[in-house]
Amino acid sequence: MSQTPPAPALDTSLDTGLAFWGANMMRIVDSGMKWPGFSYSDEEMARLRAIGAPVTYLKYQLFTWITAAIFIVIAACGIGVMFWAMLAAYPDTSKTPASVFVATLACVALVSIGWGVPVSMRLAAKIVAPHVDFSTIGPAPGDTALSAKVRFQIWRMTAIMCGVFIPGTLLWIAWDIQAGPIVTVLKVAAIAVMTLSLWTARRRPSG
User: Fold this and answer.
1) How far is the C-alpha of 19 from the C-alpha of 157, rounded, in Å?
2) Contacts of range 141-146, beta carbons closer than 8 Å, 24 or more positions apart
3) 2: pLDDT confidence band, cut at 50, 70 and 90?
4) Mean per-residue pLDDT of the chain
5) CA–CA distance, 93 with 95 (Å, rounded to integer)
C-alpha cells in the first residue's frame, strides 16, 4: 500500500525586506506624501504598516544608509563595465555616436536601478534585521505576492524613467541646449521641494 507523501513544509520565515519597505512606505504616507507608481490597497497598506511597525527610526535610517552604500557600489560597477565596453567598441571616444552612448547609459541605468535597488534593499535588510525585534510579527499568505508587486513597481518606474531619458537626452543634444541655467533652476527647485517635504514631515505628529 503506497503511502501519501508528506506535505511540503510551510515557509515560516518573515520577509524582512518587505518589512523594511513597509517601514519606508509607512513614513511616506504618515508624512502626507505619495510616490507615483507605488500605490497599495487598504489591505496591502495595513500589512505594510503592521510588518514595518517594529522598525524604529534609527534602524530605518541605518537601513537606508546601508542600502545607499550597496547601491552606489553596484551602480559604479555597472558604469565601469559600460565605459570598458564603450572604449573597446570605440577606442576613439570622439567617434562614439550619441545615440549609442545614450542608449547604453539607459540600459545600464535600467539594470543598475531595476535590479540593483531591490538587491541593495535585500542585503541591507539582512544586515539590520537581526537588530530588530520581529518576534510579534509572523508571515502572512499574501507577503510573497506583495513583495513581487513591490519589485514590479520598481522595475516599471525604472523602465519609464529610462524610456523618457533616451529621447529626452537625444533631443537635448540635437538642439544643443545650454544646460547651465536650466540645471541651476532644477537644483534650486529640488532643494526647495526636499526642504518642504522634510519640514512637513517633522511638523506632523509621530505615531
Assistant:
1) 21
2) 142/43, 142/44, 142/47, 143/14, 143/15, 143/18, 143/47, 143/51, 144/15, 146/18, 146/44, 146/47, 146/48
3) very low
4) 78
5) 5
Say whether pLDDT at 185 is over 80: no
Does residue 16 have a pLDDT over 80?
yes
Predicted pLDDT at 192? 63
CB atoms within 10 A of CB 76: 11
**Residue 140: band (very low, low, confident or very high) from pLDDT cuts 50, 70, 90:** confident
Q: How far apart are CA 199 and CA 204, in angstroms?
A: 9
CB 24 within 8 A of CB 60: yes
Name the amino acid, one letter, at 133.
D
Contacts of 43 (CB under 8 A, 6+ apart): 142
- Going by C-alpha positions, the residue among 7, 28, 127 that lies closest to residue 68 is 127
| 169, 100 Cβ separation under 8 angstroms | no
**Amino acid identity at 128:** V
Q: Angle CA(156)–CA(189)–CA(76) in degrees, nearest 5?
A: 50
Cβ–Cβ < 8 Å for 147, 15? yes
Half-sphere exposure of 196 (CA within 13 A, CB side): 8
Tell me the three cell numbers of residue 102. Answer: 545614450
Burial-class residue 115 by CB neighbours within 10 Å (0-12, 13-18, 19+).
Answer: middle
